[in-house]
């Protein structure tokens, strides 16, 4: 091969090599997808497909369904019923926001009185129990005998949450006051944080000696300064059905 032919070959080979390199780079840029939590593949140190590891969704195999601790109907004498319930998050380091639930009320002979729905947040331990209080549900002439709060585990989206991200007010010095016909509960509420807390719902529950909830009420603290304290008051227009044995006041603070 002459030098002229060899030089043409080298130039042509170089052009082809550059062309192939550019084509390869274009194909990689076009076809390659970086691992993500939405690519329907188990990659990027995920514990499952698009879950666990760096992803914000807990894998189904690691999930534990919420547990409804109790649902109590508190019947009033004016065609209304209050409902108080508690739901426990059984996951160690995970929480769930806007968990849908269904509340079903039955009267005598399993007659359906009312069915309604709502949502609640389930924080991680150590504050893994969430309260649900729904006052003044119209039930007409039907007396509510049984109440059930149910949650479909498949409708819950659990996200890794090593600690409770909320700033919770501290409740202390709960005191039963008032009269037997118009009882009242006062509780001291303290803000341990460095920022003001606004619009904090608090649920107060009265239990009898058997641990049964015999009364419940709710109040809202509109503003609680950092490191400050205030007194929350719960009132009832009628006396309790039995002798109160314990008082529990719980803040209902949504997950951020």
Primary descriptors:
11% helix; 256 residues; mainly beta; 13 strands; Immunoglobulin-like; 1 helix; 4-stranded antiparallel sheet; 3-stranded antiparallel sheet
Descriptive report:
The chain has 256 residues and is mainly beta. The protein has 2 domains: 63-160, Sandwich (Immunoglobulin-like); 170-251, Immunoglobulins (Immunoglobulin-like, Sandwich). The protein has 1 helix and 13 strands. The protein has one helix at residues 3-31; strands at residues 67-75, 80-88, 94-106, 112-122, 129-138, 146-150, 158-160, 170-178, 183-190, 197-207, 213-224, 229-235, 246-251. Strands 3, 4, 6 and 7 form a 4-stranded antiparallel sheet that branches. Strands 1-2-5 form a 3-stranded antiparallel sheet, with no helix packed on it. Strands 8-9-12 form a 3-stranded antiparallel sheet, with no helix packed on it. Strand 1 (67-75) and strand 2 (80-88) form a beta hairpin. The longest helix is centred in the first third of the chain and has 29 residues, at 3-31. The protein is elongated, with a radius of gyration of 30 Å. The mean pLDDT is 88.
């Amino acid at each position: 091969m002459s030098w002229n032919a060899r030089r043409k070959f080298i130039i042509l080979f170089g052009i082809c090599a550059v062309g192939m390199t550019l084509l390869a780079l274009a194909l990689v840029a076009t076809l390659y997808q970086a691992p993500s939590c939405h690519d329907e593949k188990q990659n990027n140190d995920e514990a499952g497909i698009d879950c666990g590891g760096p992803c914000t969704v807990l894998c189904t195999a690691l999930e534990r369904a919420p547990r409804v601790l109790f649902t109590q109907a508190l019947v009033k004498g004016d065609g209304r019923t209050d409902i108080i319930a508690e739901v426990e998050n059984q996951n160690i380091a995970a929480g769930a926001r806007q968990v849908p639930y269904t509340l079903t009320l039955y009267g005598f002979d399993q007659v359906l009185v009312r069915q309604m729905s709502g949502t609640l947040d389930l924080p991680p331990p150590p504050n893994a129990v969430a309260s649900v209080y729904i006052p003044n549900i119209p039930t007409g002439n039907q007396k509510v005998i049984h109440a059930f709060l149910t949650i479909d585990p498949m409708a819950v989206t659990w996200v890794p949450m090593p600690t409770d991200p909320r700033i919770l007010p501290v409740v202390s010095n709960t005191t039963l006051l008032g009269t037997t016909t118009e009882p009242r509960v006062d509780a001291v509420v303290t803000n341990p944080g460095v920022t003001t807390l606004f619009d904090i719902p608090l649920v107060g529950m009265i239990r009898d000696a058997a641990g049964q909830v015999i009364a419940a009420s709710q109040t809202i603290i509109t503003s609680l300064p950092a490191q400050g304290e205030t007194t929350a008051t719960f009132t009832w227009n009628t006396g309790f059905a039995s002798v109160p044995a314990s008082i529990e006041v719980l803040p209902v603070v949504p997950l951020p």
